[in-house]
Design a protein that fits this description.
Distance between the termini: 8 Å
CATH topology: Chitinase A, domain 3
Number of helices: 3
Order of helices and strands: EHHEHEE
Strand content: 25-35%
Shape: globular
Number of strands: 4
Length: 92
Amino acid sequence: MAYATARHILVDTEEECEALKAEIENGTPFEEIAKERSNCPSGRKGGDLGKFGPGQMVPEFDKAVFTGDVGVLYGPIKTQFGFHLLEVTSRG
């Protein structure tokens, strides 16, 4: 069965998501921003979502996780929960 591991940051607005993406692209560690700013409980673990298979996450996430490249920062991705920055850390 296919699986992926990923990490994410969840915030309320697209603007905040864009600002955090710029911070990460300018060198601030993803984990640091996740711990300080993410609305998701996974933020305490640097945004780590662990290992999961297709269909276990919301559709917008699934699409990015299972079709996007590993190690690329994606977002803002809008879901029912808010706006996400997403990075696929591995896939198999």
